[in-house]
Amino acid sequence: MQAAIIILAVLAALFLLYVFVLVRPKIKTPDFDGLLCEYAHRGLYSDNIPENSLAAFERALKEGVGVELDIQLSSDGEIFVFHDSNAKRMTGVDKNLCKMTSKEIETLRLSGTDQRIPKFTEVLSLIDGKVPILVELKGENLDTSLCDVAAPVLKEYSGPYIVESFNPFLIGRIKKLLKGVITGQLYTNVCKDQKKYNPITVFLTLMAFNFVSRPDFIAFNKECRKSFPVFLTTRFFRAPKFVWTVRGKEELASVRLLGEHAIFERLSESTVNDPVRSAYFAGGCFWCITPDFKEKSGVISVTAGFSGGDEPNPTYEDVKRQKTGHRETVKIDYDPSSVSFGELFDIFLSKVDPFDSGGQFIDRGRSYTLAVYCLNDEEKTVALSKIANLEKSAGKKAFVSAEPFKSFWEAGEEHQDYYLKHPEEFACELISSGRKKNADPNM
Q: Which residue among 147, 224, 285, 374 is the active-site one?
């Protein structure tokens, strides 16, 4: 019996070590400043435009989408943009890129076209900050010399970029060389993909080398969305989520609704630019305003969460007790061809008391005050105009804050669609909170 208790205690300690030390990503959320977006995998390539070519990157620039690209070293230390370790698939030459000199690489052509393997500096010069770049560091061993060559180049680049790799040691090294760089851990089930089970593949599959990379975001294989390491890092620790490789309009729409950022390929321009927009409203209790938006045509989804503060990973109890600076907020994903931001703002104003400065109805404190978190100047202009019109018609000041969007933290599953899960409790909440007069009379 005593031996069993000791074994259980050791297993519990190992599990806690794994969860809170080994797998844990970076806790403090960096300022992504527009980098949480969609990226064209190896550029916007097609049957006639090779992957990781200048033509594929030019096409992405034309469409205004972010670019994901791969970098590795030649034998003489030049950085080239190329995915495979061996050049055969894309050039017909059966030789590893790291064994070839830069002059040899420059003679190769991609997929029978006139496009060659570009140097990293050429690609950076072409993109020149016009769209964000997602740089993947290639390498499958402890050699981190790629980082030592790439870091000075990236230091000189003034455009927005983030860095990712499957190799946690490359991420750990680049973080030391580029202070403040935003990095991500690429993830797949290595044991399954390589059909190998050894300490290295097991640790990579468990994402247990995160203690080396301490990533700011996780970029995972779409087949691994429900894996335990992905759950821990993206749901429990709330690391931002990138997913690869997204193909097809339906898959892209699904990824967007899940709040993930797609690394996509072989999608038409119309699909890539098919808009699904988000709006963020703090209207007091997020349970109470969710149904008003969900019933509006053109609204795709409504997510309860928290926004407005600087505290990462806020809990419901801490927000409720005014400990985080966040407000209870709903995120509205909508189709702008069916409903406008202005119409959503009108719904918002009709379901709250805009003249209450201290909260909403029975819910008091900053976390229940009114705000709209604007993603751009257009939204801010619409919001301020409507607030001004409301004040003019009412003849008194409205306490609705129009603030720039910072971040959104999704609340727990128990807070999503509360009115559907607990209809009787929700009906009582409307009455006890004082919102009944603002609610749909048929509800």
A: 285
State yes or no: is 37 an active-site residue: no
CATH homologous superfamily of 277-438? Peptide methionine sulphoxide reductase MsrA (3.30.1060.10)
* DSSP sequence for 169-228: HHHHHHHHHSTT--EEEEE--HHHHHT--SHHHHHHHTTTTHHHH--SEEEEEGGGTTSH
Question: pTM score, two decimals?
Answer: 0.67
Residue type, 413: E
**Is residue 82 helix, strand or coil?**
coil
Which distant-in-sequence residues (6+ apart) come within 8 Å of 131 by Cβ?
60, 61, 64, 65, 66, 67
pLDDT in tens, 29-66: 888 888 999 999 999 998 899 999 999 999 999 988 99
The conformational region for residue 52 under phi > 0 = left, psi -120 to 50 = alpha, else beta, is left
CATH class of 25-272: alpha beta
Beta bridge partners of 363: 360
Alpha-carbon gap, residue 441 to 184, rounded angstroms: 49
- The rounded distance, in Å, linking the Cα atoms of 179 and 181 is 6
Domain coordinates of the chain in residue numbers? Answer: 25-272, 277-438
- Residue 334, SS3? strand
